[in-house]
Amino acid sequence: MKKPLFFGLIAILSAGLAQNLPSQTPLEKSLLWEISGNGLKEPSFLYGTIHMIGKDDFFLTNETLAAFEKAEQVVFEIDMEEMSNMFVQFSLLMDLFMKDGQTLKDLLVEEDYQLVQTHFEEVGLPMMMLERIKPLFLSVFASGDISQEGLSSGEVVSYEMEFMEMAEAQKKDVGGLETIEFQMSIFDSIPYKVQAEMLVESIKAEADSSSSAADFDSLVKIYKDQDLDAMQQSLDDSDAMTTQYESMLLSNRNTNWIPIMAKTMKKKPSFFAVGAAHLGGQEGVIALLRKEGYTLRPLHNQP
């Protein structure tokens, strides 16, 4: 199944992984949750995003806009303001490349390498430019859902960028639950050969355009239905190659976020915008916050 390509580098994979443990009780259908109790003087809010979505499918309800306005700061998976720093951008550019001079040709059998080469040359990207780039970054360009034409024409919308623009307009503080350096370190924790195999699989899935389009449309529908349980079930069919990195890419990150969220909410009411795949399940953010004594209440959030 081809997954939507989410905004944020780690989200490329974490969005395609779901906890294997089901929720103890079904979650009510909502992307917007109020966080209260456990000593909080004012509530904060949790919103599940899909990092990239078609313009016609994008929606923000009055309830979401009201919750956003009540918050004094907006917190993303990573600090969006940090990404505009030229030094950070330069460091990120340097981290695109594999270490020790390895190339994609070193990692793949000839048949798979030719598949990758043909794919990228058809979209105008010669392999000589891509040989040393970490394969998971190449997965960004392997997806038709995030074509340059789609981005430049405004056909694809990012919830994070929309929330960032709203935060700037309302002069709200902006923060992140983890650093871009941390996200980059996770990429280096996945063997390059495994990354290369994932890239090949993503290109093969992209080639099956009718099936991949139907799968993507199904996942977008689940997102618009705000059905976190169905979303998690939909993502449970990830192949074994990616599932073995589930804890690194999803569960461990959720656990790491909880004390940061607690400290942040204690200082001032916050609006947390993270990928919806992080919310559900026994190891999801909703369950983990409840375990810490917070009350999480779904808010009516219908378009």
Question: Main traits of this protein?
Answer:
single chain, 303 residues, alpha/beta, 6-stranded mixed beta sheet, two-stranded antiparallel ribbon, 15 helices, 12% strand, globular
Give an overview in words:
The chain has 15 helices and eight strands. The model is unreliable at 1-13, 15-23 and 145-152 (pLDDT under 50). It has a domain at 11-98 and 155-182 and 207-298. The protein is of the alpha/beta class and 303 residues long. It starts with 10 loop residues before the first helix and ends in a 5-residue tail after the last strand. It has a six-stranded mixed β-sheet, with helices on both faces. Helices cover 49% and strands 12% of the residues.
Short description:
The protein has a domain at 11-98 and 155-182 and 207-298. Helices cover 49% and strands 12% of the residues. The chain has helices at residues 11-14, 62-70, 86-94, 104-107, 110-122, 135-142, 148-153, 159-169, 180-189, 192-207, 209-225, 228-235, 240-243, 246-267, 285-291, and strands at residues 32-36, 44-49, 53-54, 73-78, 156-157, 173-178, 270-275, 295-298.
Tell me the layout of helices and strands.
Blueprint: H1 11-14, E1 32-36, E2 44-49, E3 53-54, H2 62-70, E4 73-78, H3 86-94, H4 104-107, H5 110-122, H6 135-142, H7 148-153, E5 156-157, H8 159-169, E6 173-178, H9 180-189, H10 192-207, H11 209-225, H12 228-235, H13 240-243, H14 246-267, E7 270-275, H15 285-291, E8 295-298
Parallel strand pairs: 2-7, 4-6, 4-7
Antiparallel strand pairs: 1-2, 1-8, 3-5
Helix pairs in contact: 6-10
